[in-house]
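Hi L., both proteins are below.
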Amino acid sequence: MRNIENVVPIYEKITLTLEEAAAYSNIGQNKLSSLLNNPRCPFVLFVGRKKLVKRKEFERFISENIEI
């Protein structure tokens, strides 16, 4: 069982999983996955084969775009 004291709120994390980013932004996981697959995606971070979302860049991307 995880210790509740070790849980970091999403808004304080530097990187997010696909599931966390979807919950945080209310954008579907399939749409986020297709954005992360774009070679010019400014908010993807590869950790081996795993893709993480850089939260601050993701927030900037959302605020600068009117349509995705």
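That was the first. Here is the second:
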Amino acid sequence: MSAKTDNTFEKKMARLQEIVAALESGDLPLEKGMALYKEGAACSRYCREQLDKARHELEIWQDGQARPLESRPVASSGLNAEEEAE
């Protein structure tokens, strides 16, 4: 696989989930656990940067003008508070 294919948000997020599951199992030698932790931190940083970029690029057109996207609180179910109330 090329480096470009490996560096998608979805692939990094999936890898991060694999790493978390492996670390939570507690069955790893120290060296392997440390290596996975470092890789997970890099995946997390990449995903955070991509989310930050996306957040800055999103705009909503209202009344003919571009306005920044307003964030809404997210409930524990993953829905925003308005969706959860429905």
